[in-house]
Amino acid sequence: MSGEVHVRATLARPFLAATTTAQVAYALIEVQPTQVLARVRVPVNVSFVLDRSGSMKGEKIERVRQATSMAIDRLDRQDLVSVVTFDHRTEVLIPASPVQDSRSIKDRISRIRDAGGTRIAPALERGLREIEKDRSGAIRRMVLLTDGQTEHEADCLRRAEDAGRMGVPITALGVGKDWNEDLLIEIGNRSGGTADQITHPDQITTYFQNTVQQAQNSAVQNSVMNLRLVQGVTPRAVWQVLPMINNLGYQPISERDVSVPLGELETGQGRTLLIELLVDPRAVGSYRVGQVEVTYDVPVLGLLGEKARVDLLLTFTADQAQLNQVNPGVMNIVEKVSAFKLQTRALQDIAQGDVQGGTQKLKSAVTRLLSQGELELAETMQKEIANLEQSGQLSSEGQKTIKFQGRKTVRLSDIDIP
User: Fold this and answer.
1) Which ranges of 27-172 does DSSP label H, i.e. alpha helix?
2) 243: which residues sit within 8 A by CB, 6+ positions away?
3) pLDDT for residue 418
4) 187, 144 in Cβ contact below 8 A?
5) Which residue has the higher pLDDT, 188 or 137?
6) Which residues contact 201 (CB under 8 A, 6 or more apart)?
7) How far apart, in whole angstroms, are the C-alpha atoms of residue 169 and residue 188?
């Protein structure tokens, strides 16, 4: 059987100049599960690892209780759930078990109380142990939520690497202001998951429910994009643009072929990538410069090693009218990725002590964001530029906003490209 995944390629510029110099070309690659899988529901095995330290007191701990209970309402008898709570100690509140008596589970969740300090690593380890109890092939997920700093960060990263080897992406969520965003980002990256900032406790419910729903919709697994290019075409970068901008990198297969692991594909969203290529000069004419092939499994349907392909075609011309043609949707995404790269380099400069260089890059990023209509993020950056010019430092809250909101400037509406 085939047709479970569709691949589409859209060029930023359909025509390149027939010149004597190399040029950069951008292609937007959409990898989307089709309607064949719209009603396929896979079982999930999710562990909630929840901070109950003293700083969670009040609305934060109440929202955590509500959010966890509402996320469990989305699970049924084929799913497994576990809940691990932590302060300076770790407790397995709900051992991994099928969701058969949700009332009893939610009753125990309602009794979570705040106390103590924050130690994340032992809680991650216990959550992984609970997930590992089941070998049924269910989609595995861990949700980590914290509002504080932790000791033994290296241990946290080792547990995240364990999660990556076990196929357990961690959704690492920081709520409030006093947490280490770099640690959570690295936990997400090393586990194959993601990290995000929760600016207000009332957003916790949405994050928890989205994580469960995304897992339930991930019937397509083990997907890999293989990019095969002809001589004279070199890959420069592969960016994920949804749900967050992220440099995926790539693994060389041969001199011109590269591979990018994509993992699970969520029905209704899939993966959207921006490929940056360096193309050597060519004479006037149309050329097939490469092929994108996505291999994937759908275990719930007994499908392994299925493939979907699309060719990359470029036309070289000397016609100025043709050269002026651009795809505005793809070019908009290219600009948003460029703004994100500027922000990232700015923060790196500042971290290394080059405040002046970082400030100039942030100013350039603000100009791009304003032209894209990203007014709120641009305003935050302008405030942080003022902080840099006055004190030579970024505020903790502003730095978090730049790091997380700067990755979310591409939206589903931007991908609606004819």
Assistant:
1) 59-72, 102-109, 121-132, 153-166
2) 194, 269, 408
3) 61
4) yes
5) 188
6) 59, 60, 62, 63, 175
7) 7
C-alpha to C-alpha distances, 102 to 74, 99, 142, nearest whole angstrom: 10, 6, 19
Residue 40 binned pLDDT confidence (cut-offs 50, 70, 90): confident
d(CA 291, CA 332): 24
> And the tokens for 138?
């269910």
| Strand 257-265 relative to strand 251-252, pairing | antiparallel
- The 10s digit of each residue's pLDDT in 9-39 is 999 999 999 988 999 999 999 999 998 888 8
**Which residue type sits at 53?**
S
Peptide bond into 243 cis (omega under 30): yes
Number of H helices, E strands in the chain: 11, 17
Phi and psi, residue 40, nearest 5°: -80, 125
Mean pLDDT on 90-112: 87
Q: What average pLDDT score do residues 284-309 get?
A: 95
**Per-residue burial over 155-187, b = 16 or more CB atoms within 10 Å of its CB, e = otherwise:** bbbebbebbbeebbbbbbbbbbeebbbebbbbb
**Given its phi and psi angles, is residue 373 left (phi above 0), alpha (psi -120 to 50 degrees) or beta?**
left
Helix (H, G, I), strand (E, B) or coil at 207: helix
pLDDT at 256: 79
Radius of gyration (Cα) for the chain, nearest Å?
Answer: 23
| Averaged pLDDT score across all residues of the chain | 92
Confidence of residue 272 (pLDDT cuts 50, 70, 90): very high
At 35 the three-state DSSP class reads helix
Q: What is the distance between the alpha carbons of residues 240 and 249, in angstroms, rounded to a whole number? A: 10
Question: In 3D, which of 156, 146, 188 has the Cα closest to residue 169?
Answer: 188
Per-residue b/e over 90-122, b at no fewer than 16 CB within 10 Å? Answer: bebbbebeebeebeebbeebeebebeeebbbbb
**Beta strands 220-229 and 194-198: pairing type?**
unpaired
Residue whose token pair is 């709900």:
94
3-state secondary structure of 104: helix
CA-nearest of 235, 227, 240 to 24 is 235
Q: What is the pLDDT of residue 1?
A: 53
Q: Is 305 left (phi over 0), alpha (psi -120 to 50) or beta?
A: left
Taken in order 177, 180, 184, 186, the sign of the CA dihedral is: positive
pLDDT in tens, 248-266: 888 878 777 899 999 999 9
For the ranges 18-32, 42-56, 399-413, the lowest mean pLDDT is seen at: 399-413
